[in-house]
Specification:
- The structure holds 2 protein chains of 2 kinds.
- Chain A is mostly helical.
- The longest helix of chain A is centred in the last third of the chain and has 35 residues.
- The two termini of chain A are about 30 Å apart.
- Chain B contains 19 helices and 16 strands.
- Chain B has a 3-stranded antiparallel β-sheet, with no helix packed on it.
- Chain B is globular.
- Classes of the chains: A mainly alpha, B alpha/beta.
- At the A-B interface, helix 6, helix 7, helix 14, helix 15 and helix 16 of A face helix 1, strand 2, helix 3, helix 11 and helix 12 of B.
Chain lengths: ~300, ~550
């Protein structure tokens, strides 16, 4: 959900930025802008509608949802499902796990990715090609699920946050974007800092990083959204329900609520509120990420652009 | 990025990767162990003289690991009475690893593949075990069935040997301990608006011809509506899978959800291709008639379940496929709120040319694989006895389903159980403070399935009881004889199987919807032949012949 919204915004910005302000716009251009406005408004509505609808459903009565009356506004206002979900201690436990896993994993990922990318951005580094190659190699080849599992298990990472944080610590795509950004920084700045007596780490921490807020914020967002939404590693490496993130909780809840055909009588009670429970859990899980978004969005747009137009 | 001159280094990298991979796979195929049938050293904790009717009690405390399918309706809790009482009665502690139900199969394959699986792997459906046989990770339980008196007694008493034999793999052994049913439990049938039928002087149909007559009469009364709009078309491999299943049954053919490319022709004593049989064509013709005369909503084949139910609730249709739970908790419940005086009933599956029959093979439920690591333990015999008691003895099954007498339930006769006041089961008592599944851990799908008809029917609601009683008298069609393929044959068969099945599914729908005239049936058969139908069937017939020769 979050991702669709971002890509919509990303796509629109360049057009808006190129608006000519010096000469008065020609008639054709004004028509173009009008059409553009209408089309983009429609796109916004189309992307927003499912979300608004989900929110409306989450507050609606079961009968109204079943008969398809709910569109933009809740009908038959009802909070029962919220009460049920919120009163399940396991939901909060797993929610806490998600926050913890996201925070730890993002922190680890940021440190490692920044260090790796900064090193790779140094053109005079010997063996730079090999280092890039190692990273890029993993984009095309993986050991496969079972070797991966055996590795993580034999390292003793199972049932700990490290099973999630370490294997996913470096996303090669993010790494390359960051590397491109660092390469675009003027080398003169670093040379000047060196002359003034800063060590390599000093340069990274006191010169480069403060200048890289945009790309750092972008990467934090990329990483945190992907860790927040991810469920598979946790599902693989966690053996106890109380260690699962909320995404696994949600997935299981949905499977129990919708897999009615084979599962038999036991799930029928839940089927009653299935539509509503989906909506409620979606709202509850995507809320924090949505709240985070406006604060980093400023950096986000410029960060991605900076990485992209380098050259 | 600069690509020049990097090629050699990349090749080195790639080569290194492949060597690493090869090393890993080599590690995977470890030693097979001596196995052997000498169990005298594996009797730790086992009972000396364990027979039918005995309560299993380990002679010393034991603990076994178990993969637990975690159902969100009753999430696993460590303080369930089930665990405590189980340990008290059997001396065995189960160490359960909960796996979310949503992805149970995925994790199961992974754990077995990685050699990290718990000893007991329940909730495995017949056929799912085949994938693990060649790796040797799963125990050939047929070799150790003699340790399981209750299992053997039930197979014998309920004449389940042909069903169990159908589980045999190409080496003649079976690797799954299936859930056993005394009688076939029918699931789906047609539900009709009885008040509407009554209003127009129509009676409930008992045969498919009568179904057609009733729909026709309804169409005359309501020319602007479709009498029948069906569901179970989305998120299923076969659209209107439920209808095809119970309609096919009336013609003695596996269709819809139960469709298999192979069918056993008892007269010719060989396998034939299901989608090419005459009976299958009759099923398709019947549905085509309903659609062509506008008695059945053509959207039935594509719409979601919700849309189909909405049509029923809005009185745009008067019939829909049902199972007992959907009937009571969805159709009747919602109709009661929306349409005054509406009544809806599920009828016993209408009869067709095949007479009062039910499809064979459906008396096996999901069951259990046992990790071959179990054989290495010195408590192997006790493990098999424990499994036998908990999953196959009457006492064990009753305990799993209803719990402890006078604590969770009272029993007034065979199959007559009543929950203690204050305990609810699937909403039976909405105000009750406790729930048999959630708070006590009984009636748990991991442990509770199959059993005697008295036990199975003990949890039926009144509607389901009536329906099941009507269905229970029907005769079961013979089970397919075993025809296990060898590994390399299995590969070929799989390559042919899916395209054939897809072609059958697609054309079934096109014929039924009238998009392809039924006069082209022979062309359709030719297309199936072009997709290697004959070779596919030959393969299965050869496998059957071979099995018969090798295993008598």
């Amino acid at each position: 959900m979050v991702n669709t919204v971002t890509s919509g915004r990303r796509a629109r910005r360049p057009g808006a930025a190129r608006r000519p302000s010096v000469t008065s716009p020609s008639r054709g251009y004004r028509v173009f802008q009008g059409v553009n406005g209408v089309v983009l408004t429609l796109v916004v509505l189309v992307t927003l509608y499912p979300f608004v609808n989900i929110i409306a459903r989450s507050f609606s009565g079961e009968r109204q949802i079943r008969s398809g009356e709910v569109t933009l506004w809740p009908k038959g206002f009802n909070l029962t499902t919220y009460e049920i979900v919120v009163s399940d201690p396991m939901f909060w436990r797993n929610y806490g796990n998600t926050v913890l896993y996201t925070a730890v994993s993002t922190a680890v990922a940021m440190v490692l990715t920044t260090c790796y990318a900064y090193v790779l951005s140094k053109k005079n580094l010997k063996g730079r090609g090999a280092l890039v190659g190692i990273a890029v190699f993993t984009m095309f080849f993986t050991g496969g699920l079972i070797p991966h599992y055996v590795l993580v298990t034999s390292l003793g990472l199972k049932n700990s946050v490290w099973a999630i944080a370490l294997p996913n610590a470096i996303s090669v795509f993010n790494l390359l974007v960051m590397k491109a950004f660092f390469e675009s920084l003027p080398t003169e700045l670093e040379e000047a800092a060196q002359i003034d007596g800063l060590s390599t780490y000093g340069i990274l921490l006191r010169i480069v990083l403060p200048l890289s807020k945009a790309v750092v914020a972008t990467m934090v967002l990329f990483y945190s959204v992907s860790f927040w939404n991810s469920w598979f590693s946790a599902f693989l490496y966690m053996d106890r329900t109380e260690l699962m993130p909320v995404t696994v909780y949600l997935r299981n809840l949905l499977a129990g609520a919708t897999g009615g055909t084979g599962a038999g009588a036991a799930t029928e009670q839940l089927t009653q509120v299935s539509a509503n429970i989906q909506a409620v859990t979606i709202v509850l899980t995507s809320l924090p990420i949505l709240c985070l978004y406006p604060f980093v969005q400023r950096y986000f747009v410029s960060g991605v652009m900076l990485g992209a137009v380098k050259g | 990025m600069n690509h020049n001159g990097r090629l050699s280094r990349r090749q080195i990298l790639a080569a290194a990767g492949f060597i690493g991979l090869a090393g890993l796979t080599a590690c995977g195929s470890g030693d097979d162990g001596d196995g052997g049938k000498d169990l005298s050293k594996k009797r730790n904790g086992a009972m000396k003289d364990y027979r039918v009717g005995d309560q299993f009690k380990a002679t010393e405390p034991l603990s076994f690991t178990l993969l637990h399918n975690d159902n969100p309706v009753y999430p696993m809790k460590d303080d369930w009475l089930f665990w405590k009482e189980l340990t008290r009665r059997t001396g065995v502690t189960l160490e359960a690893t909960p796996v979310p139900l949503s992805d149970y199969e995925k994790k199961r394959s992974l754990l077995i593949g990685a050699g990290d699986a718990p000893l007991l792997i329940p909730k495995t459906y017949p056929g799912a075990e085949t994938a693990f046989v060649s790796s040797g990770a799963v125990l050939p339980v047929s070799e150790y069935a003699h340790l399981m008196p209750h299992f053997q007694a039930k197979v014998k008493k309920w004449r389940l040997q042909p069903e169990v034999d159908s589980l045999r793999q190409s080496d003649g052994r079976y690797y799954l301990l299936p859930g056993l049913h005394e009688k076939v439990k029918a699931g789906y049938s047609l539900a009709l608006r009885t008040d509407v039928l009554e209003r127009h002087g129509l009676s409930l149909p008992t045969t498919w011809d009568e179904v057609y007559q009733v729909f026709k009469a309804l169409k005359e009364e309501y020319p602007d509506r479709y009498p029948f709009s069906d569901r179970w078309s989305t998120n299923t491999p076969f659209p209107v899978g439920a209808l095809f299943q119970y309609l096919g049954q009336a013609y003695g053919v596996r269709a819809g959800w139960s469709y298999l490319n192979t069918s056993w022709d008892a007269e010719a004593e060989k396998f034939v291709f299901t989608g090419a049989t005459d009976a299958y064509r009759q099923v398709v013709e019947y549905l085509h008639k309903l659609v062509a005369e506008k008695l059945m909503d053509p959207e039935s084949f594509t719409q979601t379940d919700d849309e189909a139910v909405k049509k029923l609730l809005a009185q745009k249709s008067f019939a829909i496929s049902a199972n007992p739970q959907e009937l009571v908790q969805n159709y009747r419940y919602n109709l009661g709120k929306q349409v005054e005086g509406a009544t809806v009933e599920m009828i016993p599956v209408p009869l067709g040319p095949a007479g009062p029959v039910v499809l064979g093979g459906s008396r096996l439920e999901n069951g259990m694989m046992i990790s071959s690591k179990a054989l290495d333990g010195d408590d192997f015999v006790a493990l098999m006895q424990f499994v036998d008691w908990l999953w196959y003895s009457d006492a064990g099954q009753e305990f799993c389903k209803w719990g402890v007498e006078n604590v969770t339930h009272t029993r007034s006769g065979p199959g007559a159980y009543e929950l203690k006041p204050g305990i609810s089961l699937m909403g039976s008592d909405p105000g009750a403070p406790k729930d048999l599944q959630k708070d006590f851990g009984f009636f748990n799908g991991v442990f509770t399935y199959g059993g005697s008809w008295a036990l199975v029917s003990s949890s039926f609601g009144p509607d389901e009881k009536e329906f099941q009683d009507a269905m229970a008298g029907r005769e079961q069609l013979p089970v397919d004889p075993p025809h296990p393929l060898r590994a390399e044959e299995q590969e070929r068969a799989t390559l042919w199987d899916t395209p054939l099945k897809d072609h059958v599914t697609q054309n079934t729908l096109r014929f039924a919807l009238g998009k392809r005239p039924l006069s082209e049936w022979d062309d359709y058969l030719a297309e199936l032949r072009a997709k290697n139908m004959d070779q596919f069937i030959d393969l299965h017939n050869q496998a059957h012949e071979r099995f018969r020769k090798e295993n008598g």
